[in-house]
Amino acid sequence: MNYSIILYIVGKVMMLESACFLIPAVTSLIYGEHEGMAYLIVGAVSAIIGYLISSKKKFENVFFAREGFVMVALSWIVLSVVGAIPFVLTGEIPNMVDALFETVSGFTTTGASILEDVESLSHTSLIWRSFTHWVGGMGVISISSCHTSYGRRLQYASYEGGEPGTGSRKNWFQDLEIPQRFFILYIWQ
Description:
mainly alpha; globular
């Protein structure tokens, strides 16, 4: 198994999520709330860890479907755990299990919630919770794979169900354009 490419992609996903933490931080500034500091701290730590993990460029460019499956699974886990930490740090959802449930619920768009009164959250945490639902609506992994440098190889390996470069290449470039078009449409709607 090509562990270095897995770490590279997971590191890039962490860096992408850390950039997303800027949205609640800006919201915190607009509304004058102090919760934004938790999002900035978690975002900075996530960016540093993601950079350190993905900075090693000693890996093979070829990988198989099993690496793709591991990358997807680890990406979901990392996104959910890191996304839940600000809820705990702000004290708005003090239990990590509840915060994790709320974040996973957002990224998977199940609509389930442990909160009895969602509107009681600060604007900062409410925008993060809403953002997780928005990102989940499009699909976290499809957005990430469209915007990472090795996303095309990941999608191709998953599409072929095996080693990239084998089998037919039937319209896979067109298949890769579809999530990108949906993402653009999703932003403008």
